Structure formats: structure tokens, C-alpha cells
Amino acid sequence: MQKRHPLGTFALYATVIVTCALLLFPIYWMVVTALQPSSNLRAYPPQFWPTDPQWNVFADLLAKHPFMLWFSNTILIAFATMTISLAVSILAAYALSRFRLRGGQGLGLFILTSKMLPATLLIIPLFAIFRSTGLVGSLWSVVIAQATLIVPFCTWMLKGYFDTMPPELEQAALVDGCSPLGTIWRIVLPVAAPGLAATALYAFVVSWSDFLFGRTFLTTTDESWTLQMGIASLKGEFVTEWNVIMAGSIMASIPIIIVYLFLERFLVGGLAAGSEK
Amino acid sequence: MTDTTTPHRGRSSGGLFATIDFSAPRHRAKFGYLLLAPAVLLMAVIIVYPILLSVSISMQDVRIARIGDGAEPWTLENYQWLFGSGETWHALWVTFKLVAVVGGLSVIIGFATAMLVNQKFRGRAAARLFVALPWAVPEVVATVIWAWMLDSSFGLVNWLLMRSGMVSEPIAFGSDPNAAFAAVCFVMIWKGYPLMSIMLLAGLQSIPEEQYQAAKVDGAGVWQRFWYITLPNMLPVVGVTLVMTTLWVFRDFAIIHVLTQGGPLGATTTLSILTYEQSFEFFRMGQGAAVGVLTMVLCAVISRALVGRMAKSVH
Predict the structure, then answer these.
(1) With CB atoms 3.0 to 4.6 Å apart as the test, which of A250, B97, B173, B264 could cross-link to B150 if both were Cys?
(2) Best of B2, B26, B33, B46 to disrupt the A interface by mutation (most A CBs within 10 Å)?
């Protein structure tokens, strides 16, 4: 690369900053709106900086709605989904990557196709099944429903990652007398940590952000709701208190934004490995 | 501790695998199937069986589906309704419009941001982090933020449009069909471009630097390099990302449901929304399942392009 003209450098930085500012503005606006006193929300022109931040909006939110329950429901669902999906898909992905199995190719294709199923179709039979088994209203219904979409994708991502790892290490471990499961646990998983992190992040984010499954299976009482359902219901209320909604939105997105900031580099690597096939 | 006459047993003493030594070549395949078993069982129960069940529901006159309720006789009524009613065709048209607008614009924005953060500059890692950030924002949260920005009385977007003199009175994003469609597009593009830019960036990084250097030596300008090197190299990746976005728009529910609930006058009712509406608002699950099966078939046709490409990596 030759040296860039100073004017070119300036233009580049200006473009980067303007692009980032434009693309991230909605997130900024969420924070500003949450902190405005409600009278300022109808101000003309709109106020772009919270001169008088109202931190008690968060207390309002907790007092008026079972927000902490929604929060803990969401966390429980996300962790259960992530754990189950990872456990199942690690084994399956390893088998698909390392063994030439009869039917393995068919299964791979099936996994790819099931990634593309419309969730609005799946909820109809799942609803019938959960009604017969009494799972409607239970958090497990959402965990199971989410697994339909997350397990295939995780398996696919992890298979892509295992494919990039040389099998020699595992062979050495097997020769040294390590059991096959022990090899996966002690050799494969530590080496595949970045891929696992990306997959776990993906499962967590997808599960955390779910709206459809919760909306369909958890409608009985608002105490079994998830965060996304709670926020959607706030928007539907007769008088829309935008500052309260935005406060809820901040709390609903902060955990996954933090997870994202920590694990982004793994995710990009993982997704890229999946796309370059 | 170790039985010297059967050295293969080795460390696998005790537990589930004590009897078969899976590291022996002739048992390798068995071990593979064993590893696959949980996934296969899970998918049989939560994917294959539900799909078969939904096809069966779509061929019955069912209002609220449940299992073992004394099966209704099979009928094609739901499919007669499906192809005879204007609702389906309208939803199909809305879905295709949405795919065209969202796919087209987010590939342009995604490509531009990917090109931008592929340049060499200080803070590039942070810029990459930021441009992909909306990917992590939950769909419902993204939707309520935009619903507030597009509010017809106090929304920021209307204030900007009025201030700049582009419109004389606020646009009613909630009640005007075209404006509501545009509102859905805004949210979908904002949510959808980050994944595009991540994948396109990965594509850009895999183009060999030598090609650019050789072109420079031959005297090719910036545009020529873009046109003859970047674009041809990127076409496959663009194709994959477009198919993925198309499938996402086809299947998405949360954004439209929270923003417009498919309205006004069905202007934003996609096939997905129609499926849900029929099944869980009008409680005509038979008809809902028929719409869903149609969506599934269309998604399968579209994803053939993707599967064909990706299947090459399945051995």
C-alpha cells in the first residue's frame, strides 16, 4: 500500500465516523429517550441531549411491571437453550466432521434445510404437541421450540469449525490411550474454544431475542413472559410511555450487547468460516 | 488395573463404553452413530414429527389443533381457500416486494460498509465492531426504537422531514399503507445489513492481494480494480448473503407483528404474518398450516441455491 494523500485520510476518517454515527443513531436515541422527563418527549424541536436525566425511570419500570420476572425468565430460557443446543450439536458436529457415516450426507443436507424452516409454521404443530403434554405456559416449551432452529445452525457452525482442525492431535491422544469421549473433552473442545464461543454466543443471542415462541406458548400470565414480550406489550398499551419502553429496551439489550462486544471476533471468524464454503 | 491380554480396552474402563473399545477402527463408525444419536432423536421429535403433523393439520378442517382428538377426515378445502382467496396472493406480493426492497438496499449498505471497514485505518477494529452492532440488538427492541423514531406526532423522522421541507405535514407511518410498508423496510434493513457486512467483509478479505497488485502494475484505476477484481470475486458471497436475507424476510415475524401487526389494510401482511394470523388470531389452524406449508415450499425452493453451494462441503 502506498502512502495515502492527507486529504484522502481525512475523507476516510470522516466517512467512517459519519457512517458509524448514522448506523448507531437509533441506539443513541434509545438511551436519550429513556432519560428524558416525559414532558420533554413531546418537545418541539426534539432534544438531542438529556440535560436533565431522569434515572428514576428504571425504578418506575420495575415498580409498574414484573420486569425482574421477565428478566429471570429470559435468562433461564437463554441458558437452558444454549446448554442443550451446544451439548447436542457438539457431538453431532464432531461425528459429521470426523466420521464417514452412512446417511451422514443426508443428515447434513437435512440440517441445512431445517435451518430454513418458517417458524410460524412450526408453532402450529408444536402448539398442538405442547397442549397435549401440558407444556403450554412452561418455560420449557420455549426452550424446546428454540432448539428446533438453534440446534441445526449450531451443528453446522461447529462442523465447519471442526473441519478446519487437523485430526492429528486427536489421533495422537487416542494412540496414547485416551478414550474417544475423553479425546473430545480434553483435546477437541479446548482447541475449538473460539468456535464454541461463537456458537454459544449465537445460541444465546437468538434465544434471548426470541419473540414468536414466547408470544405463542407463554401467554397465560404476564409472570411467565420473556423480556421481548414484555417490551412489545408496553408498546401496545393505550398511552405509550416512550421513556419507560426505552428504559426497558436498554435493560433488555445491554446483556447481549456486552456478550457481543466480548465475543465479536470469534463470531465473525465463525460466521466467516461458515460462509466461505 | 489394565488387563494385559486385551490392551485395546485401555482407559475406557467403567462407564457406558466399557464393553466396546471405540478407538478400534472397526468400532469407529459405531461411535460416530452414537454421537449423532441425541441430535437425530431430538430432530425427529421436534422437527420431523411437527412438520408431518403440520402437513396433516393443513389437510384437516381444524380450528384449534391438538393431538389424538379423533382425527378429522382429510380434505383439500384449506388448499382451495389458499389458492382461491385474494389474501394469499396479496401476502405473496407483499413478501416479494419486501424481499426486493430489503434485500436490495441492505446488500448495498452492507457492501459499502464492508468496503469501508476493509480500508486500513486506525480504529478499524472498533469500527468493525460498531457497524455490526445492530445485529445484536433484539428484533423487538429495534422495532420499538424505530416505532418511536417514526411516531407520527412526535417522532424524530417526521421532525427532520418537516424541518428540511421535504413534507408539509407529518407522515402517518401507522395508518398509511405505503408509509407502513416503508417503516417495516427501515427496521428490517437496519437489523439485516450488519450480517451482510460481516459476511461480505469476510469475502473481501479472502480476495488475494496479488490480484490487486497485478492490476495496479497493469495500470488499472480504482474503478477498474473494483469492477474487474472485487465484483467478480464477490459475486458468490453476495449470492449467499442475498439468499440468506431473502429467507429471513420470508420467515420473520417479530418486526412486522410488533410494528404494524400486518396492517394497515394488510399492507405489511407477509406469508409469515398470515400464517400466524389465521392460526392464533382467527383460530383457523388448518388454513394457517396451509399458508405455512406454502411458505415452507417456497423457502425450500429458494434455499436450493444456498444448499447447493454449501452442500459441497458435506462429504
Answers:
(1) B173
(2) B46
Distance CA B268, CA A217 (A): 24
Whether ipTM exceeds 0.85: yes
**Cβ contacts of residue A99 below 8 Å, gap of 6+?**
B28, B29, B31, B32, B35
Give this prediction's pTM. 0.86
Could you list the residue range(s) of the whole structural domain that residue B143 is in? 79-313
Query: CB distance B50–A178 less than 8 Å?
Result: no
Task: Domain count for chain A, please give it.
Answer: 2
For residue A243, what are the contacts with CB-CB under 8 A and spacing of at least 6?
Answer: A33, A34, A35, A36, A37, A38, A41, A54, A57
Are A151 and A182 contained in the same domain? yes
- Read off the pLDDT of residues B177-188 as tens digits, 9 standing for 90 and up: 999 999 999 999
Write out the residue range of the structural domain in which residue A152 sits.
57-275
A 15-54 near B (Cβ less than 8 A): 15-16, 19-20, 23-24, 26-27, 29-30, 33, 41-42, 44-46
Domain identity same for A19 and A72: no
Which of chain B's residues have a Cβ under 8 Å away from the Cβ of A272? 198-199, 201-202, 205
**Which chain B residue is nearest to residue A88, measuring alpha carbons?**
B39
